[in-house]
Structure formats: C-alpha cells, structure tokens
Write a structure and sequence with these properties.
This protein is an all-alpha fold. Among the domains are: 3-93, Helix Hairpins (Orthogonal Bundle); 105-142; 224-269. The chain is built from twelve helices and no strands. The termini are far apart.
C-alpha cells in the first residue's frame, strides 16, 4: 500500500460514522478557508527556500485536496481518482508540443499557445469536462475567481484582458497610467470636506492600486509576490530600527519623526 493510498484510507476513516466528530461535520464550504491558509503557508515556505517546511506544507495542502474529494465521493459526485485524472488530462491537453505531434515551441510561443488553449476551453470549443460550455461562463473574465486576494485577482484580470489585446503596448503606458491615477487620488484628497469626498478618495485609491498592479504585470513582476517581499523587507527594517533604538537606550515608538527617519536611513544603508 502506498502512502497516498494510506492517506485516502485515513481520511475516509476520519469521515466514517464512528470517526472524528469535527471531520464528519465539515463541508467543502467550511473547509475552503483552510485550503487558502495552507496555500499561503506553502507559498511562504517556498519563497523562503525552507525545504523542511515546504514538505510539510505540501502535505497539509494535499490533505485538503483529499478531504474535499472524500466529501464529494460520499455525495456521489466524484472521487480523488477523478480529480487526478482531470488534472492529468488538462496538462496533456495544454501541452500538445510535449504530448502530441506538434512543433517544438520556445517559451514565448508556449505561453501564447497555453492561453489560446485556455481561451478555447472557456468558450466551450474544446469541450473539456472542466471548462464551461457555450454561453455559460464564456465571457473573457467570467472564470477569474472572485475569491482570490484582490491584488492577485487584479493581475489575472489584466492578464486575461491583455490576451484579448486590451492592454498597453509597453510598460511606459502603464507607468503613465499610475501617474495619472496618483494625480486623481491627490486631487480627490485635496477637495474640501463634503458629501462624496470620502467615496471619491476611496475609488481613486482603488484605481491607483489597480494601475500599479498592471504596471507590475507589464514589467513581468507578479504583484502579489512583490508585495509579500516588500512586506518582509519593511518588517525586517522596522525590527532593526527597534533593535538600534534599544541598543542606544531608547524606545523606537517614543522617538520623534526625525529620529525615526534617521534610523530608517541608517537601516537602509546597512543592508
């Protein structure tokens, strides 16, 4: 018996009549948040190059896949084998240059072919089991999940629109859009107090963030990963500033703005 077969048996046992009460009461909807958490923990371990935790997080995410498949199997919808078969078929279908008699492709051509195959699946032209049929979710943006983190969804929306030709021809145009949206944020913020000001600031700030994410995409940067890296850098610097202040007999939070700025500059120079 393989480890995967044993895992399937363990999850089935947990869901049995005399199994674990907590596991038995779960549904796919109630488990969704855990899958998201595990995916983020996996991404964190991968980005840090922590292979020990990466292995553990892969296991945690696999458990979520098996758990969802078990629930679906109990309801007579599909089982884990069907899940594995579906992704196997999708990978083969989307790599004709590897698994079919197709011409070899370079990376750019491969990406273009991948998007073309996905577009055909969305329109129902390819007819795969995991794609929407004609007239059902066949719109350009219809299958970009609303449950994605906002920044990640912005990236996917922009990429999808770009696949249809609705995009800046070069990064400079995207950068100009960021400058334009920043000016609109400042203009809205500079308005006198009154009805609608907060709403306009809110909307213009959203437009600015959307434009910044699209600039990142045009520059070949995944904005979610870039922002996570920026968060980590900010945390590292703040901790260093706190340590420096403590070493000098002070409390970082009690320092005035000028002193904190000096520590910030010192910390940056030391990196």
């Amino acid at each position: 018996m393989t480890a995967l077969t044993e895992l399937l048996a363990v999850v089935a046992r947990l869901r049995a009549v005399d199994g674990c009460p907590w596991d038995r009461e779960q549904t796919s909807a109630s488990l969704a948040v855990y899958a998201i958490e595990e995916a983020y923990e996996l991404a964190d371990a991968a980005e840090r190059g922590d292979l020990r935790h990466l292995q553990a997080e892969l296991g945690d995410l696999l458990f979520q896949v098996v758990f969802h498949a078990q629930i679906a199997d109990e309801a007579g919808h599909f089982d884990f084998d069907a899940v594995a078969a579906a992704i196997r078929d999708k990978l083969v279908r989307r790599h004709p240059h590897v698994f079919a008699a197709a011409a070899a492709l370079n990376l750019t051509e491969q990406c273009a072919a991948w998007e073309a195959i996905k577009a055909a699946e969305r329109s129902g032209a390819a007819g795969p089991a995991d794609a929407p049929g004609p007239g059902a979710g066949a719109g350009l943006l219809d299958d970009v999940p609303r449950s994605l983190p906002a920044l990640m969804r912005t990236h996917k929306l922009g990429k999808r629109a770009a696949g249809a030709g609705f995009d800046f021809t070069e990064a400079r145009g995207a950068a100009d859009k960021v400058a334009e949206e920043l000016a609109e944020v400042l203009a809205a913020a500079g308005e006198g107090p009154g009805a609608g000001r907060a709403t306009r600031v809110f909307e213009e700030t959203g437009d600015l963030l959307f434009a910044a994410a699209n600039l990142a995409r045009k520059l070949g940067v995944e904005p979610e990963a870039a922002l996570r890296a920026a968060n980590a850098k900010f945390e590292r610097r703040v901790r260093r500033m706190e340590a420096l202040a403590h070493e000098r007999g002070g409390d970082f939070a009690a320092l005035d703005g000028a002193a904190q700025e000096m520590l910030w500059r010192e910390t940056k120079r030391g990196e």
